[in-house]
Amino acid sequence: MNPTDHFPRLSLGHFPTPIRRLHHLEQALGGGHLLLKRDDLAGFALAGNKTRPLEFLIADATSTGCDVVVGGGAPKSNFIAALAAAASVGGIACELLISGAALVDPPPTLRLAEASGARLTFTGGDREHLDEEIDARASALNRDGHHAYAVPRGGACAVGALGFASGASEIAGQGVPDNATIVLAVGSGSSVAGLNAGRGAIGANWQIIGVSVSRPLEEMRRHVTTLTRACTQLLEVAAPSDAVIVDASVPGMGTTTDAERMIVSLAYESEGLLFDPSYGAKALVEVQRLVRTGFERPIVLWHTGGLPSALSLLTTEKGA
Ligand SMILES: Cc1ncc(COP(=O)(O)O)c(C=O)c1O
Question: pTM of the entire structure?
């Protein structure tokens, strides 16, 4: 049973994404039972995990008669490039609000968004205020006769969370055992909230550990609980027990620790896998921590993508 089956959905990615055992990394770490869920292979642009919420968000926008989506993020946000690509494929215009000042040398994420035909506006402000600015821009467009669809940062809303609610039934169908622990990085909270809502809807007992990369821990916990409830209300199922959220927000998104560098190199050397510094590296460190505690139950690491910045971690000198 997939609890999201009756919602409009635009097919963008190749699902189910593969799941496989990481024998070589287990050996390198000296233990553990590790499985990798490969949303880095979702097959839509470089969108990784963000392909999932966008299948529901763009379908919701077009099926309700909207003619423009309004979203936003920091310049290096993977989501903005993904949103622009999904809007383009879905045949709807896209406006993006980018935090900070205009850049002389835009990162690949912004260049990709432009290549999809999105209209970019720099707000000059910080990213924390973007959701309000997105709503205000959507209202202004509506006053001008458009039908605008506002998408919060990262697709963190009930409809966006449907993407990972669907992912929950996907991994149940791939045989992930009930005693598994699932580890994934948390930014906007859309993925972990949807996964937990979907887990509840299908009655799976997995433990879910979200590795928070940005907001303060208590704020993130509250935010994820609210988002999970919004998604379960949409699905018309009971709210599940909360996911475990652990803090990986220190020393900050732009800074890579020695531990992150080492485990990312180990994953590349032992399995040929690429992980990005902002999200994947932090989830991997949590997996390593679990293995070191002698954790014996299967651990599913959900690879969320982030390939635009994955190269930088392996190819730049420490401290660069
Ligand atoms: C590569 C990658 N992994 C994980 C995440 C976190 O996902 P979420 O925003 O759904 O919490 C993001 C968010 O942009 C991401 O780009």
Answer: 0.97
Owning domain of residue 69: 50-154
d(CA 112, CA 85): 8
Q: What is the dihedral of CA 228, 229, 233, 238, to 10 degrees?
A: 100
Residues 78, 171 within the same domain: no
d(CA 79, CA 188): 10
- Quick one: which atom of ligand 1 is closest to the CA of 187? 11
In a domain, 5, yes or no: no
For the Cβ of 305 lying below 6 angstroms from any atom of ligand 1, the answer is yes
* Token pair belonging to 136: 């205000």
One domain for residues 38 and 163: yes
Section 13-36 average pLDDT: 98
Pairing of strands 244-247, 19-21: unpaired
pLDDT of the residue at 124: 97
Ligand 1 pocket test target in 39, 50, 109 with most atoms within 8 Å of CB? 50
DSSP letter at 244?
E
Q: How far is the CA of 143 from the centre of ligand 1 (A)?
A: 32
Same domain, 310 and 200: yes
220-266 per-position pLDDT tens digit: 999 999 999 999 999 999 999 999 999 999 888 778 899 999 999 99
Best residue for ligand 1 mutational test, from 196, 245, 278 (most atoms within 8 Å of Cβ): 278
List, for residues 29-80, the tens digit of each pLDDT value: 999 999 999 999 999 999 999 999 999 999 999 999 999 999 999 999 999 9
Task: For the chain, report the end-to-end CA distance as a whole number of angstroms.
Answer: 48
Atom of ligand 1 at shortest range from CA of 307: 1
Residues 205 and 239 in one domain: yes
- Residue 22: which residues within 8 A CB-CB, separation 6 or more? 34, 35, 36, 270, 271, 301
